[in-house]
Amino acid sequence: MTVQETPQATPNGTPDAASYPAFHPTHGVRNPGTALELDWVRGAQVNRSAVERRVATLPGRRTVKNVHQAAWLLKAVSCIDLTTLAGDDTPGRVRRLCAKARRPVREDLLEALGMTGLTVGAVCVYPTMVPHAVRALSGSGVPVASVATGFPAGLTPMPQRLEEIRYAVAEGAAEIDIVVTRAFVLTGDWEALYDEVRTFREACGEAHLKAILATGELGTLRNVYKASLVAMMAGADFIKTSTGKEAENATPEVSLVMVRAIRDYLERTGYEVGFKPAGGIRTAKEALLWLSLTKEELGRAWLEPGRFRFGASSLLGDIERQLEHFVTGRYSAAYRHPLA
């Protein structure tokens, strides 16, 4: 399968989804995975110049202003995995983050916008912080996600990585963000990558698995596409760009390649997989770019937290500032919108 040109579009500019299976919002039908199709993986090609041309058209193709921009930004808030993955995390910091997750935008702004009950998509923390997050979010409907498997490098022994998953799930994590072994991608050992992700998926049980590909360390866009396919074949519920710790994190180019892989996998198997760009997405303008890319490539159905997430810590503050500007006509200082 070659990643090259823009999909067939409907008159309003979105892909024709007539042949797509019914979309299941939030945590519905999962991707069970498939057998490893090595011919498909090894034969995959990516046209970098076509990817770059497509990405270059996005800012001009999709511009939203005024009330439409406000609506898109509220949608972005609902798709944020509000994250703290710092070495100095404390239970108190996690509780403050969870309070922000419950009420991500100031009540006066939501009232002016006619919105109620808005929350983020999830809160993402280290495994030891999961029980604190679960207690703080009790009754809110906001799931807790945990990184695992030796995040961010993923180079701890397999028994420890599996035990980390089991610990987080036992403490109440509903989603597990695993990291793959980059060496399997760089050496083309697709069987080993498939077996690794499949094993992680089994350890997750009912918890949903997000496979972090660490795209900034995979070398080529072709490797990104192939790794995306293998992770989905192994049963990943989401594929995620980055840990946020690499020198290069989410970019529009790798994101385009990954959502094309999701679309190709859907068309071939009928199974839906979510997409999570993470790392370096800090402004409302950038959030709109990723939303528009996903909508144009996968359709409106993917703009829901069950199929799209931002991995972010500082993005929410800028979105809230933009929403205040829409409501009041004035920009506020960043300190008026504390994250936690």
TrEMBL record:
GO annotation, biological process: carbohydrate catabolic process; deoxyribonucleotide catabolic process
EC number(s) from the headed UniProt entry: 4.1.2.4
Annotated GO MF terms: deoxyribose-phosphate aldolase activity
UniProt keywords, alphabetically: Cytoplasm, Lyase, Schiff base
Compositional bias per record (Polar residues), positions renumbered to this chain: 1-13
Pfam family, any one: DeoC
Start and end residues of each stretch annotated as Disordered: 1-28
Enzyme class: lyase
Compartments reported by the entry: Cytoplasmic granule
Pathway the protein contributes to: Carbohydrate degradation; 2-deoxy-D-ribose 1-phosphate degradation; D-glyceraldehyde 3-phosphate and acetaldehyde from 2-deoxy-alpha-D-ribose 1-phosphate: step 2/2
Gene Ontology CC terms: cytoplasm
Catalytic activity: 2-deoxy-D-ribose 5-phosphate = D-glyceraldehyde 3-phosphate + acetaldehyde
Family according to the record: Belongs to the DeoC/FbaB aldolase family. DeoC type 2 subfamily.
Name used for this protein in its record: Deoxyribose-phosphate aldolase
Taxonomic source organism: Truepera radiovictrix (strain DSM 17093 / CIP 108686 / LMG 22925 / RQ-24)
Lineage: Bacteria, Thermotogati, Deinococcota, Deinococci, Trueperales
